[in-house]
Amino acid sequence: MEKNAKIYVAGHRGMVGSAIVRELKRQGYADIITRTHRELDLCRQAEVEAFFAEEKPEYVFLAAAKVGGIVANSEALADFMYENMMLEMNVIHAAWQHGCKKLEFLGSSCIYPRLAPQPMKESCLLTSELEKTNEAYALAKISGLKYCEFLNKQYGTDYISVMPTNLYGPNDNYHPTHSHVLPALIRRFHEAKESRAASVTCWGDGSPLREFLYVDDLANLCVFLMNNYSGNETVNAGTGKELSIRELTELVAKVVGYEGEILWDTSRPNGTPRKLLDVSKAAQLGWTYRTELEDGIRLAYEDFLHNPVRAER
Q: Which 3 state secondary structure label does DSSP give 197?
């Protein structure tokens, strides 16, 4: 990307989109276009096409999505599928229609099969069934990355996709039931510390293994790939390291400063038993993560404490 290139970041208010905007500005890109949901509803094809016709962005980071944790995903399957399918198809199609030089589609590691060989290589996509609790979201994301691949094959576009592992960091969603595991734990332990609760109960048995990537590291990779990668196969974004939910829970409690007892409700679902990405492809391209988990959790907790809108919603 040229430093004076016109760049559209879809979803700039979300955790990923806002991190991409920060990273672009840090690297000296100045012509960054954004629109709030109120200004542009990406689920409305006519609105999206009119926006692209008027603005004609040269590069697009598609970070907009309807996201949520296990509860939100499993309670609103139809909503997650419809909204994600519509917005991504509208943006990708309009980018192609209006001659966008390059588009980068942001997905999620939940696209991979529930019982995929670990660590998960990009090539394991669509080799067996998905995790049922987030099947709708995964199907939508798979459709988006496949549409990018098919446009490349049919029309010679340069559209790429990135599949991050579990993300956390500034501008995360700390909703008590609709957030992902790490921000949910930050909120739960903070409130338990404030109320001096004797114990905190967490879902499942703590055995599932998870990988976490600080969102500003992802943003750095996104800009790196826009400048250094072309290809039909997606690129995994992660650390290549994992820990159990039990270990994560103890680490968050330590960072927050909660000293009570941690209990486990085994009647609640664990989710996928293990989700570790094979990040050798990104490494071969010359990229690696920077932020270790405990340091990142400290930064995320600072964001939670100083961002009351995020903390209370």
A: coil
